[in-house]
Amino acid sequence: MRSSLLRSVKTLARPTTARAYSVDSVPSRKVTVLGAAGGIGQPLSLLMKLNPLVSQLALYDIGGTPGVAADVSHINSRSEVAGYMGDDQLGLALEGSDVVIIPAGVPRKPGMTRDDLFNINAGIVKSLCTAIAKYCPHAIVNMISNPVNSTVPIAAEVFKKAGIYDEKKLFGVTTLDVVRAKTFYAGKANVNVAEVNVPVVGGHAGVTILPLFSQATPKANLSQEDIQALTKRTQDGGTEVVEAKAGKGSATLSMAYAGAIFADACLKGLNGVPDVVECSYVQSTITELPFFASKVRLGKNGVEEVLGLGPLSDYEKEGLEKLKPELKSSIEKGIEFAKKN
Ligand SMILES: NC(=O)c1ccc[n+]([C@@H]2O[C@H](COP(=O)([O-])OP(=O)(O)OC[C@H]3O[C@@H](n4cnc5c(N)ncnc54)[C@H](O)[C@@H]3O)[C@@H](O)[C@H]2O)c1
Ligand SMILES: O=C(O)C[C@H](O)C(=O)O
Q1: Where in the numbering of this chain does the Lactate/malate dehydrogenase C-terminal domain appear (predicted)?
Q2: Is the four-CA dihedral 255, 34, 42, 248 of positive or negative sign?
Q3: Ligand in closest contact with the CA of 174
Q4: Is residue 114 a known part of a binding site?
Q5: Residues with Cβ < 8 Å from 251, sequence gap 6 or more?
Q6: Is the ipTM of this complex over 0.90?
């Protein structure tokens, strides 16, 4: 899937006309990015403009989108781009959308947890999801805004209240955890990173991020010490970037890459491509928690199948039990917020 995105990028990077591929065989798909002028939003908008599965790209933010849209629109790829700014244009940005990607909200600064963003981002996510329920109730939603462990349950509650909740269409984007786990594993195991697969389950914050290195391929004989160090680095990947950026935000470029991969997988699923599997934080029954990240098969209606955890090592079983209380309380916090507000 990553290689197909890279293939798409390479194809579109050639100085060709927009007719270099057959648009007739690819369905029309509208993608909306909410928070498109931000640190993630801008590179993500660029990557979605390069995706030949997109026919209409709507870029929405509270400010700055006319410039981003004008800039991105000059790229000679398939989609038509439009910028929308401010509350009164949100409906237009969303109408007819097949996939809505939400990287809107504030990022962390050093010393903060993702949960410290709750007070500001919960309200932003709630109001954007209220608009989604009104203007594109059947769209697939890719939630990037943190804390994902709580913002996805908030979105679910907003959609329930509006009477349009479809658990198959709501996704917390945890692809960056998978991207990191693959990179770190390849480095340690000295294998070709392009061939690496590592499922990451649980949630998207600290210990709730549980990479399953026992299932990583290609297999490598790593020591338990190496596995523990890789697990910790994956769990702390976001903090590593926050500290390196020293007050200037969190991961934006790697997140845009990860967000583009996940949106591409959703579009492929919608278009009927078989066997599209990605890890994502979704409504789930594979543990006792109502939301959980695991491998998910994507299809024409969004989630086609939530896949199980597979065999876990003792270390992973321990990690799974450890993450449950924190994930449970983040889910409850989100649900409570949405019910009260
Ligand atoms: N899921 C993940 O793996 C992951 C990874 C990285 C960052 N994030 C999260 O993504 C979010 C965005 O990060 P960023 O670095 O792009 O931040 P940023 O501050 O650079 O950009 C956020 C954008 O959201 C916009 N915005 C604010 N309120 C809005 C509203 N009501 N409607 C539309 N747009 C609105 C802002 O104007 C800004 O352009 C943060 O919450 C961050 O923690 C998640
Ligand atoms: O770490 C953050 O705050 C941003 C994001 O969740 C990440 O994993 O990079």
Answers
A1: 174-337
A2: negative
A3: 1
A4: yes
A5: 40, 176, 237, 238, 241, 242
A6: yes
